[in-house]
Amino acid sequence: MNRLLQVTALASLVFSAPLMAQDHSHHTQHGDHTDHTTMNAAEVSHSQSIYQIDALWNTHQQSSLKLSELAGTPVIISMIYGSCTTACPVLVHDAKRLYNSLDEATQKQVKLVMVSFDTARDTPEALADYAKQYNLNNNWLFLNGSEQDIRTLATVLGVRYRQRPDGDFDHSNLVSILDKHGVIAERIEGLSQPMEKPAQLVTQLAKMTVQ
Amino acid sequence: MVKWLGVAGVLFSPLILADPVLVTGGTFEPPVLLDKQRLSIEMNSFMLDATPVTNQAYLEFVSSNPRWQRDNIAALFHDGNYLKHWDNNTAFAQGKENEPVTYVSWFTAREYCAAQGGRLPSLNEWEYASMQYRQQQNISDNDYARKLFAWYSQPHSKQQTVNPNADQLMHMHDRVNEWVDDYQLLLSNGDDVDLLSGSCGDGARFMSSFTNANYATFFRYQSRSDYAPQSTTSTMGFRCAYDLENHDE
Predict the structure, then answer these.
(1) Which stretches within A117-188 are classed as H helix?
(2) What are the residue boundaries of the Sulfatase-modifying factor enzyme-like domain, all occurrences included (chain B) (predicted)?
(3) Which domains, from first to last, does chain B contain?
């Protein structure tokens, strides 16, 4: 398994070479993610994109996906686990509220990505059941990944979590908005937050042209 | 002259790096508790590098993984100071081969370990190994606390080498503080998440008993949890862990 991942990582290394060649921004200090709400596309730093993570995920639609494949549309992303009966349905509901506050044209562009903490129990099949149960359309993607990749993504998003002895997860409640390049544009912390401003932001992001 | 030394080191390295050492599983009583109800944890056996990863070993990693060289790394994965003490992408100053590598972020430490077929140890694994190390070396609780506080009062990872061929755990407390996979669990302050804004699991973090040794350990947890995963400093290094079933490849 490790071998396979290494080969995958190597392959992605080769394919991402042109992207890396442009990245000379390592001398600049890592910025505060919350500052990225400014809409000037020219200032977007691609090397802050979470699409730099080249892990391979399994979707609830039985396909595999790299996050970089989401580039080109704004993304609403959160992390949950399927057997969670407390905060997680609220997080899904929050993402749905945000989606429902968008106009139809924007809705068509946006993707919603729910990544599971629970690599063992949230199989693609279990996640498909979950999506069905919540009656979610094809703009939604539920992702299952390896423990290492889940930890990487959570860390990049600023989501803390740990598995409890009973198998459930303690986790931060966070919905994040990514721009078309995969840079974090907004972080909505806590449950049941107001969605008017985030909806305006997503609408603006959807109008931005991809460079 | 120094410029090509690192490359030469890769080509002609005389070092035979030691195998990781076995940390035998057993019952672990964490000095800092995450669960009020759980005072002890059953630990599985695992392998752990005997010493922190050295400049030389890290050089070999970046030489074969250009993506993680200083000029190529994406800004997402470091704070701007990644490997800043090296001369360039693939060279460091002469004589630094066996010093623990520092100015590495949590992300880059994990990439290094993954490339070796391993991973960063969990916080509990690292602390459990530290406990075994104290027993192996007959380090009393007070000596441990003294040693740790002495290091914290004047951390000096520079000019301090490790033996790359060590056959038992070494330098758990006197070279660098080390990244662990879930270092953010405790006393968090490293990012924007407001832990009291509704996140679960914020409570029940306290020492199991107030002793000098536990306080020293607590201090290690705390100093590390202030870092962002992008942080790179002169005192943070790492060593890798390996699952037993994966290690014989």
Answers:
(1) 124-133, 147-157
(2) 20-241
(3) 2-246 (3.90.1580)
Residue A58 pLDDT greater than 60, yes or no: yes
Q: Which residues of chain B have pLDDT under 50?
A: 1-14, 186-204, 247-249
| CATH number of the domain bearing residue A103 | 3.40.30.10
- Establish if A21 belongs to a structural domain: no
Report whether A117 contacts A161 (CB < 8 A). yes
Q: Report the alpha-carbon distance of residue B79 to residue B100 in Å, rounded.
A: 19
CB contact, 8 Å: A162 with chain B? Answer: yes
Does A143 reside within a domain?
Answer: yes
What residue in B sits closest to A55 (Cα-Cα)? B111
A4 part of a folded domain: no
Count of structural domains, chain A: 1
Residues of A at the annotated binding site for Cu cation? 84, 88, 171
pLDDT tens readout for residues A65-95? 999 999 999 999 999 999 888 888 999 999 9
Q: How big is the A-B interface in CB pairs under 8 Å?
A: 113
* A13 to B229: CB separation less than 8 angstroms, yes or no: no
Among the residue ranges A104-113, A154-163, A196-205, the one predicted with the least confidence is A154-163
Q: Kindly determine whether residue B114 and residue A5, on different chains, have CB atoms separated by under 8 Å.
A: yes
Q: Does residue B38 belong to the interface with chain A, where contact is any CB pair within 8 Å? A: yes
Q: Tell me, yes or no, if A174 comes closer than 8 A to chain B by beta carbon.
A: yes
pTM: 0.78
Determine, for residues A47 and B38 on separate chains, whether the beta-carbon distance falls below 8 Å. no
Range of the domain at A166: 33-207
Structure tokens at A65: 């996906």
Q: How far is A151 from chain B (nearest CA, A)?
A: 8
| ipTM here | 0.76
Angle at B76 between CA B185 and CA B88, to 5 degrees: 115
Element housing B114 (H / E):
helix B106-115
Cα–Cα distance measured from residue B146 to residue A192, given in angstroms and rounded to the nearest whole number = 48
Residue A169 resides in a domain:
yes
Cβ neighbors of B168 (< 8 A, separation 6 or more) are: B21, B50, B136
DSSP string across B4-55: HHHHHHHHH----PPPPEEE--EEE--SEES-SS---EEEPPEEE-SSPPBH
Contact A99, A75 (CB under 8 A): no
